Amino acid sequence: MTGARLPEGGLIDRARPLGFTFDGKPFAGFQGDTLASALIASGVRVMGRSFKYHRPRGALTMGSEEPNALVGVGEGPDHEPNVRATTLELREGLRAVSQNRWPSLRFDALALNDLAAPLLGAGFYYKTFMWPATFWERVYEPLIRRAAGPGALSGAPAPGREDRAFAHCDLLVIGAGPAGLAAALAAGRAGLRVIVADEDARPGGRLLAERLEVGGVSGADWAAGAWAELASMAQVRLMSRACVFGVYDGGVYGVLQRTPDGPARNVYWRIHARRAVLAAGATERPVAFPDNDRPGVMLAGAVRALLNRWATLAGRRVTVFAAHDEAWRTAADLAAAGAEVRLVDVREDAPGTAPQGVELVRGGRVTGTRGRLGLTGVRVRDGRGVECWREADILAVSGGWSPAVHLTCHHRGRPVWREDVAAFVPGPDLPPGLSVAGAAAGAVSTAAALCEGDAAGRAAAEALGRAPVRANLPEAEDAPVSAAAFWLVEGVKGRAWVDFQNDVTVKDIRTAEAEGFGAVEHLKRYTTMGMATDQGRVGAVLGLGVLAEITGSGIAETGTTIFRPPYAPVPLAAIAGAHGFRPTRRPPTHGWAEKRGAVFVEVGPWLRAQYFPRPGETGWRQTVDREALAVREAVGFCDVSTLGKIDVQGADAAVFLDRLYANPMLKLPVGRCRYGLMLREDGCVMDDGTVARLAEDHFVVSTTTGGAAGVFRHMEFCRQCLWPDLDVSLVSVTEAWAQTAVAGPRARDLLSRVIEGLDLADEAFPFLACGEGRFEGAPARLFRISYSGELAYEVAVRAGRGERLAEALAAAGADLGATPYGTEAMGVLRIEKGHVAGPELDGRTTPADLGLAKMVSTKKDFIGATLLRREGLADPARPALVGLRPVVAGAGVSPGAHLFAQGAPVDAGHAEGRVTSAAFSPNLGETVALGLLKRGPDRIGERLRAVDPLRGREAMVEVVSPHRIDPEGGRLRA
Amino acid sequence: MIIDHPLCGPRDAREFTVLGDAAWMDRPDPAAPDAAEAFHAYACLRANPAGVTRELWWHEHGDRSWLVVTRDTLSHAVLKVELAEDVARASKAAR
């Protein structure tokens, strides 16, 4: 018989039955089940196939350390592979599928690998796939990937149901077993801000799996009571289903919380804790003997958990194979539940008498198992060396317990062997602020766990300046320690598994040792032991024990590898988060532009209108051409609110800006604007914009869209760190103003219909004037500046009035041909005019490179002044700004193309510059381009090759002035 | 990492932007005869100590203060946090 549900008992809610499917077949379980417990209770034993040999496997454990029972859950983009059936909470309608098998779990074609096992041992890849080298990527790896490995992702975009969160606390308690709960109670009662993170859906840890009493009630009830008391404390936060997977610098802990009922599937927490108590318990170790991996071979503690927590008898005929007293509880509990139990203890001198109804074999060994798709028999050698096969459906194994030391290794601490508990316990080099309590520290009894946890909680309170509150600990089991380690059944043939998930056997360890890879770190890499998704939580210590037996040196001398994060598998999607906190920024006229059918483009975090197609237009070029022509011939308007705007005020505002910009600002008159060129200290151009003086002590400066954050940071740096004596203050007002460029020969006509209170006649409001008028009764700032080279203004109104301004401009200018234009036409206009932008301001260009040398003041100090005078930056051979036009009419020139002299070889060494910006100019009827060319301004009229190897394009271009439209500037002064 | 801001209290390092060595605060005198060398060292040469270092951090998602954070690059422990404005004033007063 296989597993069956007992009629009563357990921590399941029998009033809430749940239906689910596994590989399409319907099953039933109860609220409180995991997928694994429900499957075992339904008689299912095979849940997966092994990684390399495709051996049928069932659940080995009942926890997050499970190496075998990995399944896929959900469908389509929601499909999540490699979910451990042992921690997956059952829910109504759950659809789980097995992995790594074809065509089915019961019949898997690649089980042939198992027959080829002699060829597939340790170092197999290194020895076999040596030659030819090119075959690795093209042939071997794809084949191996297909044959091996766990489940696959859906390939569809993630549904984005992940979230991230942050929390801070005084004490983080990792684990809610007896030690963790005692620590949390002690710390919480002392008033600390405590977070308790526990992997399980239910508090109690190991108590849930035992029949032990704590304080006179069942362990589960005591845990529930402690949890309720903690929940009543305002400064305590309880997190169940939350696995602490990593310890990072500065007391930061990475936590993955499953939130099956929340809007997110997983929440990735970064918890900053001043102190932490690791109370993560211990993991049971298997024993290496032939065919110890069959479905039905389970860890003794897992069999006990199935019985006590999930009211499931894993099998009727049970053999318990143990090396220590604690596993005798499994025999006793199973016998009490009516199973036929045989207890094989490796110790000749095992103390005590056999539990009621249990057949005890002292000094015995399990030397083999049988049953292809599930255990049917066990071969036992008794103390006198007599072997016989006995029928069995379950073999419960325990080679001892390994404390969950993993998190203590995350700062490179190394566990140490403790002979009295036969286990590696946390070493002395713990991560700062972390202490360890309970089974994780090697404590064996429940009473010891409670006591250590309580002490850790009180110590944390004391360390953080709180008076610990003394409380009596509940009565609990305090059995004397008699732990022993047992690794390997010697003197029998057959494959004995050590790392179940990566299919590493004793033979692989022997091979590695014989071939010179016997040091623990070498062994790990040569055999891949401990490198599967379970991080060797079940098998790694067993492997080290086996190695110690093989070499004859003790386990303490053999030592252990250490563990890295994550403690348990973490989906990458959970770390990536949905999209993080990255809001999309929309300019004030976004809604209006949407109504006009605009096409949008991402510019950093901003979404800007790229162009405004009209019905009947067949392509973006047609639209952009129309918009660019409208600006040159009539009037256009464009939202430029994304440009950074910084308000500068104070008695020393002018001095401050004069030191900041390369050109003079001190004597800028009130009511005037000036182009501002800002350098980095190394002399290269950092950003450009407009400086407008609204009052003696009040300026507003603009920055490029992309440079806004950096320029503001730089200005605050200069104010606070360099010139703290200046009376100046800065505020970023980018979001406060909706700014619209109105450009074209009819710009003045249009604006005078919309703006009141300001005389816009050229004499009253000339080029580079600024002033305040009113738009529909509210203040409007006007700046007469031009990016396009036309008569142009920028109008700034309060952000909330931006859409209204766009509506008003469109309505008032209908007869003038007022046309909204987007970033694409804006780019065309500025390239025609020869104005530099992002592609030219690439952080490597100087003012001279950009043809702006005359602007730079020689009479003052400013940021970048000294280093700008370096010889190399004054070299006339440096690439400098030129215009470029194709020689053949209709030819295109692409940005990024490199410039070569005719006849010169086309290679990196002979490139003389590059094309930075290019667009088709509807005003000139040809492509206009800007570029940086060595000695460029001296080479007007020269013909060069513009070669774009990336796009496989080439064009002959002529060097021209960058200012292709109105070089004298008559239009913008009109 | 937690930075104990003199005005805002302990804040997560994610609220800050780091600029680098606090030597950025000591802008050389452009009128000095060795200004070219001094500015070269100021802009380009940085010590990269394994141990205690002073860095400039900007509370970008906070009160916009520049801070001088003294920390140990070996342990990542924050040893001292000062307002850069105070440090700059004190260093000017000392000159």
Automatic annotation (TrEMBL), chain A:
Protein name listed in UniProt: N-methylglutamate dehydrogenase subunit C
Residue ranges occupied by any FAD/NAD(P)-binding domain in the UniProt entry: 170-349
GO molecular function, one term: sarcosine oxidase activity
Pfam families: Fer2_4, GCV_T, GCV_T_C, Pyr_redox_2, SO_alpha_A3
Species this protein is from: Rubrimonas cliftonensis
One GO BP: tetrahydrofolate metabolic process
Family: Belongs to the GcvT family.
Record keywords, A-Z: Oxidoreductase
Domain called Aminomethyltransferase C-terminal: residue spans: 881-963
Entry annotated with the keyword Oxidoreductase: yes
UniProt keyword Oxidoreductase, yes or no: yes
Domain SoxA A3 intervals: 493-577
Domain (GCVT N-terminal) ranges: 590-860
Automatic annotation (TrEMBL), chain B:
Top-level division of the source organism's lineage: Bacteria
Protein name according to UniProt: Sarcosine oxidase subunit delta
GO biological process terms held by the UniProt record: tetrahydrofolate metabolic process
GO molecular function ontology, one term from the record: sarcosine oxidase activity
